[in-house]
Design a protein that fits this description.
Blueprint: H1 15-25, E1 30-35, E2 38-44, E3 49-56, E4 59-67, E5 73-80, E6 85-91, E7 97-105, E8 117-133, H2 136-141, H3 159-164, E9 176-179, E10 192-206, E11 213-221, E12 224-231, E13 244-254, H4 263-266, E14 270-271
Parallel strand pairs: 7-13, 8-12
Antiparallel strand pairs: 1-2, 2-3, 3-4, 5-6, 5-8, 6-7, 8-13, 8-14, 9-10, 10-11, 10-13, 11-12
Length: 274
């Protein structure tokens, strides 16, 4: 399984290497804002790879890998579930809910637990354990598309499936999404999901800071678009347009309008109070 850092070309072998990376990039970070005595600092490589740090008394207490990305989702009811994870509804332009998502948020220090927000967001999916399929047809024939990975492909379908001509065993669509963190105890919510999406564009990028490369693929899944980051060691070639990426991803979101700034910026994301 790939690490989040490896998926953006910042792979490290041990804590010593991680500390060296943080020491090298943190002084070049930009202060995003302050909240409750915590400074939020963001470092960004020319490749788009990002590290977002939380500092208290000039000491790093947390950091989040991310990627510079354009918005591909409209989120509503964005709320903090715990210290790391926020949950939200993904909605269309009319406000109709399409799916739900749990993410780690770049701007989580600026999000109160009672916030109820509605607006555009960029979503980044770290391809921790994903597979690339050449086409929707190839994905539909692969075990990765089975709803139950342990299903017996040779078993006879139940009568109601046979009567309706439904495929058996059941499979997920090439654009499908299931967030692991939107159900259950909010304190235990995690930002992982099972996702399948269609690639619209992709590119190989090289991190100036480390010389490592990584892949970025823009995918369309159920309800939104995301940039999937791929560890070059497990995905040496980038997927072509029309390919399907499926598997387990870790989700990070960026809502720029949550950052302290001019009033014109804050207006892009509306705050609703119940």
């Amino acid at each position: 399984m790939s690490s989040n850092l490896a998926c953006i070309g910042l792979a490290v072998d041990d804590d010593s290497a991680l500390n060296a990376l943080v020491s090298a990039v943190l002084p070049r970070g930009v202060l995003v804002g302050r909240a409750d005595g915590i400074d939020v600092v963001r470092w960004e490589d020319p490749s788009g790879a990002r590290l977002v740090f939380a500092l208290k008394d000039k000491r790093v207490i947390d950091f989040l890998p991310s990627l510079s990305s354009r918005p591909g989702a409209r989120l509503a009811s964005v709320r903090a579930s715990n210290a790391s994870v926020a949950t939200a509804a993904v909605v269309d332009e009319d406000g109709e809910q399409l799916t739900s998502v749990a993410v780690e948020l770049e701007q989580r220090q600026f999000l109160g637990r009672s916030a109820d927000l509605n607006g555009p967001a960029a979503i980044i999916a770290f391809g921790r354990a994903v597979t690339v399929h050449e086409s929707a047809e190839a994905f539909a024939a692969a075990d990765d598309s089975l709803l139950d990975p342990d299903a017996d492909r040779d078993a006879a379908p139940p009568p109601h499936y046979a009567e309706r001509g439904w495929p058996w065993p059941p499979r997920v669509a090439a654009e499908s999404f299931f967030s692991h963190g939107v159900f259950g105890d909010p304190d235990q919510a995690v930002a992982t999901a099972q996702m399948a999406g269609v690639v619209s564009e992709s590119a190989r990028r090289v991190v100036v800071e480390t010389g490592q490369s990584f892949g970025v693929a823009r995918v369309r899944t159920a309800g939104f678009e995301a940039d999937v980051c791929l560890d070059a060691r497990t995905h040496p070639t980038v997927p072509s347009s029309g390919a399907i990426i499926s598997g387990t991803v870790f989700l990070v979101a960026s809502i720029e309008a949550l950052e302290p700034g001019p009033e014109s910026t804050r207006r892009r994301f509306s705050r609703r109070r119940r």
